[in-house]
Hints:
Layout: H1 6-19, H2 27-38, H3 43-53, H4 57-66, E1 78-83, H5 86-90, H6 93-104, E2 117-122, E3 134-136, E4 139-141, H7 146-157, E5 176-178, H8 191-211, H9 223-232, E6 239-244, H10 253-260, H11 262-276, E7 280-285, H12 293-305, E8 322-327, H13 337-344, E9 368-372, H14 373-385, H15 387-390, E10 401-408, E11 414-419, H16 424-431, E12 436-441, E13 447-450, E14 468-473, H17 478-492, H18 498-516, H19 521-537, H20 541-545, H21 548-556
Helix pairs in contact: 1-3, 6-7, 8-9, 8-11, 8-14, 10-11, 11-14, 17-18, 18-19
Amino acid sequence: MPRFDTEHVIPFVDSLVLSANKRADRLLQLLVEIQTQYSFVPDQAILRLAEQLAIPSSEIRGIIEFYSFLHLVEQGDFQIHFSDSVIDRMSGSKVLIQQLCDRLGVSPGEPRADGRVTVSTVSCIGMADQAPAALVNGYPLTKLDSKRIKAMAQLIESSTPVDEWPADFFLVSNNIRRRDLLLAAPFQEGSALSHLFKTGTDGILDKLSRSGLRGRGGAGFKTAAKWQMCRDIDADERYVICNADEGEPGSFKDRFLLETCADDVIEGITLCGLITGANKGIIYLRVEYRYLKQHLEERLARRRDKALLGEGILDQDGADFDIEIRLGAGAYICGEESALIESLEGKRGIPRNRPPYPVTSGYMGKPSVVNNVATFFVAAWVATKGGNWFASKGTAESIGTKLFSISGDCRYPGIYEFPFGLTISKVLDECGASETQAVQVTGPAGNLVLSDSLERKLCYEDLPAGGSFMIFNKSRDLLGIVKTFSDFFAHESCGFCTPCRVGTSLISDLVTRVHSGHATQQELDQIQIIAEVMNTSSRCGLGRTASRPIMQALQQAPELFTHRGETG
Length: 568
């Protein structure tokens, strides 16, 4: 029997649809609100949405099934999502998950019969610096241990509301370990916008060009060029989109920026809007960071009150730009900019064919700038301090400094700001790592660096670094780590194109056989053939990089495979 008032569903859905002006592109946001209200999306809600938005109910169900935080089955009063990244596993999360399930009498991923609780896993919740971690009804639980697991079980069994749980359970530390240009002093709100009105859009674009600022999301496209292209396109409407869907396992720099430097980020988004001629900005916030939404809404409201956002910014006629926050629903692929736009339009996050690129045809078919949180953060500082200031650090092709999310086998995990060009060995010294076997740079889709290559430099000329930096000491099962990465890609493939959908699954199965010692040389050869097909035929970057962990391990550490079962 349902544990909610079914008669309430239709009026609730109708009120949501009315507040969204019956816009079909708001479908995902409506589903997130319904999920939050009921712990799942009831059939009555699906049918009502289909009727009100003129969308087939089968399509709505397909969207629900695409996103990991939306459900067709009731999840209960307490929804526990353990972070399942390799760092969480190294910190003992699997044992803790089993302990909680045993205490609650529930199987992982299956709602308990009484409808009280569900315990499940998600790929990563952006808390690798304070693992093992989990979410309860969207709120982060950090540094979990057996004692806390026992207390959580007691709180759940006694039906204690989450807002009455001990406050220290929810403590999220900033863990700022090293500051440089960007973190050395607080940002003066309004300073970037004041410089814009003094120097004009060309003046700020020149600063950004001199700074050499590249997008901090991984692709490294020059920020000034992207913003100028969007500005110069003839269009009646433009959008600025902040990609806050930080789903790369081991990455948490955007979480830190949204928590601690929200004004800097928002000012950078506003700056971009005024330069490009956009009137609307959107922060696409990953659902795992939903707990930050109220904090961000408060910052937006405060900036509107101070004429730093909204109509007539800093009392300048025609300087109109505002920002809204929209939530994702759990899909790693939505970190890819075109998939993110599809998600914003209320659809499954399937990457688009390119060209056209978002800068010419993005959200709702309009020119759109899509940059990640860190890019907007740096842009606000460059507009204030100047391009030469930022270019005083770094290398010829990798100018300035960068924030790194460092986690794993080190004494001091957290946020580090380093100039580009630093060697990996220097980073390891700074964070207190020892007996390092390997480092994974830029998450599973990045590069595996073994202990004989630690003098490589973190820069575009040598080793591009997206921000995630995971450290593994000599006690770790490196092949097991590769298996975790392969399983991750198989789980996160959007399933649209055959090379990625089938290839990630095949590689995951084959790596499992290798890890268990049952693979043959022929199967190792098959991995390489599958990888080549995926690299050349996949629709987007996920499929083209999903084989990278196993291929790099095969190339750099063949000894891992030489004594496993039949392999030789």
